[in-house]
Description:
The chain is of the alpha/beta class. The chain has one domain: Double Stranded RNA Binding Domain. The chain has helices at residues 6-30, 64-79, 158-176; strands at 49-52, 56-57, 83-84, 93-109, 116-131, 137-150. Strands 1, 2, 3, 4, 5 and 6 form a six-stranded mixed sheet that branches. The radius of gyration is 27 Å and the shape is flat.
Amino acid sequence: xxxxxxxxxxxxxxxxxxxxxxxxxxxxxxxxxxxxxxxxxxxxxxxxxxxxxxxxxxxxxxxxxxxxxxxxxxxxxxxxxxxxxxxxxxxxxxxxxxxxxxxxxxxxxxxxxxxxxxxxxxxxxxxxxxxxxxxxxxxxxxxxxxxxxxxxxxxxxxxxxxxxxxxxxxxxxxxxxxxxx
Length: 181
């Protein structure tokens, strides 16, 4: 049976003490900015109304700008505390943008015939949101993309996927309207 020397015991105690202090210090560093849970709104409280300007469309596919603008207005009404107003002069803020591209690509193909089994529509837009009271740009030309897939074998077509992609893009734009945490 071997005995542990007092020097080994001190070394072991030092390692445990050093490790404990390090863990405690790192724990405090990680929690320095946390203030716990909050029921504070994710959205700005200095704005109560939004005017949604018709999106411009820089692509060759027409009609998607109407669907995106409509989907965005509906999502703002449903998911934010903001009221969408139809008169720009009565609005406290303005959200606008342009669709830069609308793309379509094949995701999967049938091996024997080479026909597309599943396709995807990809929308890319640039969005701005301005506080009309102060002139501050709340969102400054942020690029946002969204996609949706469709399959002719499930009786889905391009317009179905374009509508889904516009809704997905509207959801992402509303997420951009949240305050930074």
